[in-house]
Model the fold of this input.
Amino acid sequence: MPVWGWYIVSSVLALLLLAGAYFGGRAAYRRIARRYLIGIVGHREGILASQRTLEAILRHLADEDDEQLEYFAAHPDDADRKALVEVTRRMEIAREELDTMPLLRSLQAPATALADAAHIIAAEAGRVGESTDSEAVFSALAEVDVARAAEASVAADAMVNEVSERFDLDEAAVYGGGLYI
Done:
């Protein structure tokens, strides 16, 4: 075989190796991104559940009579007060995990949005705190901004959905993978 034939064969092989490396790298990146994205989706579900819990507690309190509201305000061991404290703690943990989670660059924006939503939900749920001063509790309860928490959750959810679509991750794959909340 002439020398120019060897150059052609080696050039074709080099191109094939480069193409294989490129497509293999892309496939590996997508696989890694999907694995991280499953964790982010798990956090999203926890954040959305906490946001719904905050709304449910406030709806429940709105339906209570004055005597039950006084008990809520004066007793930090009330079930609704404990639920608010639990929501606050869970969202603080979720925010910390999302802020410190090592992620690919393409997943940082949705994780940051989720961390921000968790921070807002924790701040709103934590307004009441563990005070026994009824006036302070009612004042803090009146300042809870559920709309702010809902907006942050919806925005974060939209970002996670957008990234999930980009990486072809559907809910059935996530829940089929063992994520049950």
Remarks:
- The CA atoms of residues 36 and 119 lie 21 Å apart.
